[in-house]
């Protein structure tokens, strides 16, 4: 059974200027339910994450500043969000959803978090709408519980997973792979274990060729016991922040290839949705929903 972490708090109201990016978090499950791709049984609402697990990944002082709403104004501006108790609850529920999703992925092959993909959050900073790094938190949880000893993070959001790269810089059990816009945010990149920086305007053919020439070899060499996939749809040509030129079909082919590789190699995969900033919300929702439909087709 496909299990999907979702809670209404994922789309909680924010001040003007912040609401549009949040709309997709309620529209994605609503669209999947409307089309009959899933039922309510597929959705689960994660509990808040405990502090002990957060501290496996994030520095104590940074977490306490988030928890106590004392993060300095300059650091709040870096995140792009005004800090609030509701926002922190949202972040810790998203992270717990990704952890729970790993358990479901190990059972069923694949699992999703409607939100997540907060890859710009480093061990002691937040930026780019990311406060806590959900997939990094989940990876460290799995390692601490000895549920995995080799993990691959595939980050195909248009923006480099700089926070994830920094967190696992000295952790050989986690291999970080990021394929992203070279001249896009973040403008100060960290070093992933393997980075593919892309020129502006790269389209379907070149993008998919690079991915197909890279991912099978990474899986073969690393032999991961679990894969995290960050499936941002800000690679679309329509995306106002992306600078790449993938079509909707190209984005779908990307997701199909990643999921097929996981299925072919019998590796469970947890999927977090990442970014998407096309001016028409329908483009964002449809591209994200395609990822879920592919998972149903391939795994169930």
UniProtKB/TrEMBL annotation:
Location of the Histone deacetylase domain: 21-289
Hydrolase in keyword set: yes
Alphabetized UniProt keyword annotations: Hydrolase
Source organism superkingdom: Bacteria
CDD domains: HDAC_classIV (cd09993)
Pfam families tied to this protein: Hist_deacetyl (PF00850)
Molecular functions (GO terms): histone deacetylase activity; hydrolase activity
One GO BP annotation of this record: epigenetic regulation of gene expression
Family to which the UniProt record says this protein belongs: Belongs to the histone deacetylase family.
Protein name according to UniProt: Histone deacetylase
Organism from which the protein derives: Mucilaginibacter terrenus
């Amino acid at each position: 059974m496909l299990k999907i972490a979702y809670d209404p708090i994922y789309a909680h109201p924010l001040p003007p200027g912040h609401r549009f990016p949040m709309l997709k978090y309620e529209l994605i499950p609503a669209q999947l339910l409307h089309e009959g791709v899933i039922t309510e049984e597929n959705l689960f609402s994660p509990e808040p994450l405990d502090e002990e697990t957060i501290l496996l990944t994030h520095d104590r002082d940074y977490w306490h500043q988030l928890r106590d709403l004392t993060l300095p104004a300059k650091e709040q501006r870096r995140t792009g969000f005004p800090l609030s108790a509701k926002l922190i609850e949202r972040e810790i529920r998203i992270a717990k959803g990704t952890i729970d999703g790993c358990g479901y992925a190990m059972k069923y092959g694949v699992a999703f978090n409607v939100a997540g993909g907060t890859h710009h959050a480093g061990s002691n900073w937040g930026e780019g709408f990311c406060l806590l790094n959900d997939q990094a938190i989940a990876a460290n949880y799995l390692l601490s519980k000895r549920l995995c000893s080799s993990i691959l993070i595939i980050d195909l959001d248009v923006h480099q997973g700089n926070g994830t790269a920094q967190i696992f810089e000295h952790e050989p059990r986690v291999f970080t792979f990021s394929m992203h816009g070279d001249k896009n945010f973040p403008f100060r990149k960290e070093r992933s274990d393997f980075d593919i920086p892309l020129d502006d305007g790269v389209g379907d053919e070149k993008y998919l060729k690079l991915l197909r020439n890279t991912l099978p070899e990474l899986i073969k060499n690393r032999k991961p016991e679990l894969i995290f996939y960050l499936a941002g749809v800000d690679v679309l040509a329509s995306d106002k922040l992306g600078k790449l030129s993938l079509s909707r079909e190209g984005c779908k082919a990307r997701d199909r290839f990643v999921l097929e590789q996981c299925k072919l190699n019998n590796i469970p995969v947890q999927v977090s949705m990442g970014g998407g900033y096309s001016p028409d919300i329908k483009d964002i929702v449809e591209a994200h929903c395609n990822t879920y439909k592919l998972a149903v087709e391939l795994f169930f």
